[in-house]
TrEMBL record:
<dbReference type="GO" id="GO:0098797">
    <property type="term" value="C:plasma membrane protein complex"/>
</dbReference>
<dbReference type="GO" id="GO:0015031">
    <property type="term" value="P:protein transport"/>
</dbReference>
<keyword id="KW-1003">Cell membrane</keyword>
<feature type="transmembrane region" description="Helical">
    <location>
        <begin position="16"/>
        <end position="34"/>
    </location>
</feature>
<dbReference type="GO" id="GO:0031992">
    <property type="term" value="F:energy transducer activity"/>
</dbReference>
<protein>
    <submittedName>
        <fullName>TonB family protein</fullName>
    </submittedName>
</protein>
<dbReference type="GO" id="GO:0015891">
    <property type="term" value="P:siderophore transport"/>
</dbReference>
<dbReference type="InterPro" id="IPR037682">
    <property type="entry name" value="TonB_C"/>
</dbReference>
<keyword id="KW-1133">Transmembrane helix</keyword>
<dbReference type="InterPro" id="IPR006260">
    <property type="entry name" value="TonB/TolA_C"/>
</dbReference>
<keyword id="KW-0653">Protein transport</keyword>
<keyword id="KW-0472">Membrane</keyword>
<keyword id="KW-0997">Cell inner membrane</keyword>
<dbReference type="Pfam" id="PF03544">
    <property type="entry name" value="TonB_C"/>
</dbReference>
<feature type="domain" description="TonB C-terminal">
    <location>
        <begin position="145"/>
        <end position="234"/>
    </location>
</feature>
<dbReference type="GO" id="GO:0055085">
    <property type="term" value="P:transmembrane transport"/>
</dbReference>
<dbReference type="InterPro" id="IPR051045">
    <property type="entry name" value="TonB-dependent_transducer"/>
</dbReference>
Length: 234
């Protein structure tokens, strides 16, 4: 005889549903346990939170001092003295400058005009009467004689500086000087490659004799003159 099971009596029929419901309940309880927070009870002093006392603190009031008032204007004089205009004023008489026919006109003598001599520098190349070098008084061409005597003077007084020879220094020194209105040599200037050569050129020019000054329109004038002095090692 076979045993027959009642389908309603099958206990495993809804086991899956129950498992899912149980799992959901376990997850919910676990989540709530993790999220659960507990706060400590703290008693607050209500009087300590009262801020009315702080607001009632007295704040000192700063008084602003007003600037001092301006000084009063000076008092007007009590009595005003009236001065009578009785003083006599001398009138200024303006004399007429117009001439009268009865007046005698005095003739003024001729006034001599004195020409002031101006210091003029006339270059040696254009001056009318060149300065005369001593020894050229009777020369026909005093300009050429002047140049020859200058060269002769330089050769006669030339001396090569020893220090320039030792250092092998050579070159040309340009010399410019002025023959003044009294024939003296003034305003000597040099330009060269070395100070020792310039010093020697200055020494030579200072030995020039006094000359007869140059003349322009019959007047003695200053005459600038330039000449090169060459220093060359043998």
């Amino acid at each position: 005889m076979e045993l027959k099971k009642n389908p309603k009596a099958d206990l495993t029929k809804n086991s899956g549903l129950y498992f899912v419901i149980g799992l959901a309940l376990v997850l919910f309880v676990t989540w709530r346990g993790i999220e659960w927070k507990q706060y400590d009870k703290t008693e607050y002093d209500i009087q300590a939170l009262n801020v009315d006392d702080d607001l009632d603190e007295e704040i000192p009031i700063t008084e602003l001092k007003a600037p001092p008032p301006p000084p009063p204007p000076p008092a007007a004089p009590e009595v005003i003295e009236v001065v009578e205009d009785e003083e006599e004023v001398e009138e200024t008489v303006i004399e007429s400058t117009e001439t009268n026919q009865d007046e005698v006109i005095v003739e003024v003598e001729d006034v001599e005009v004195v020409e002031e001599e101006e210091d003029v520098d006339v270059p040696f190349a254009v001056i009318e009467d060149v300065p005369v070098f001593p020894g050229c008084e009777n020369a026909k061409n005093k300009r050429d004689c002047f140049n020859k005597q200058m060269q002769k003077h330089i050769r006669k007084n030339f001396r090569y500086p020893e220090i320039a020879q030792e250092l092998g220094i050579q070159g040309r020194v340009s010399v410019l000087f002025t023959i003044d209105k009294d024939g003296s040599i003034t305003n000597i200037r040099m330009r060269g490659p070395d100070k020792n050569l310039e010093a020697e050129a200055l020494r030579i020019i200072k030995k020039l004799p006094k000359m007869t000054p140059g003349r322009q329109r019959g007047r003695a004038v200053r005459v600038p003159f330039s000449i090169p002095i060459t220093f060359k090692l043998q």
